[in-house]
Design a protein that fits this description.
The chain is mainly alpha-helical. It has one domain. It has four helices and two strands; from the N terminus they run ββαααα. The protein has a two-stranded antiparallel ribbon. α1 packs antiparallel against α2 and α2 packs antiparallel against α4. The radius of gyration is 23 Å and the shape is elongated.
């Protein structure tokens, strides 16, 4: 909750009592822990949707083989620990480090990796299973 300080003589609060934020962790800056958690959550949604769409397309073109369905189950089960690894790295930060802007470059690198896995893996692994299916069957 904001507390009121004395009347201001500058800025948009001229002549009025201005609210002042209490110094709480995360009150200033971006909380990298929350941002990575959000990134992982959205990436999992996108990944799962893409995997389902790609797998269903592969199933309609592969003479109803069970291989794409197996790929769907394996990939959804395998991606969760991978994404959890990225999220866990950021959860270890203390409150002060979690809002430190110096982590921006590292966050962006990890964010790119999460999104590349989320978007690329459904196509790569389904393609691999389709190639295996055509070689074996």
């Amino acid at each position: 909750m904001a507390k009121i300080t004395s009347a201001s003589t500058t800025g948009p609060w001229v002549g009025k009592a201005r609210p002042q934020q209490r110094a709480t962790p995360g009150a200033r800056g971006i909380d990298w822990r929350k941002r990575m958690s959000d990134t992982v959550a959205y990436a999992l949604l996108v990944y799962t949707a893409l995997q389902i769409v790609v797998t269903m397309h592969a199933m309609t073109t592969d003479n109803a083989s069970m291989l794409p369905l197996f790929a769907l189950v394996v990939l959804i089960a395998a991606i969760i620990p991978l994404f959890r690894h990225y999220e866990r790295q950021w959860e270890r930060l203390d409150d002060q480090a979690a809002t430190d802007p110096a982590y921006r470059a590292q966050f962006r690198r990890d964010q790119w990796a999460v999104w590349l896995f989320a978007i690329g893996l459904p196509f790569a692994v389904t393609g691999l299973f389709r190639a295996l299916g055509s070689l074996l069957g």
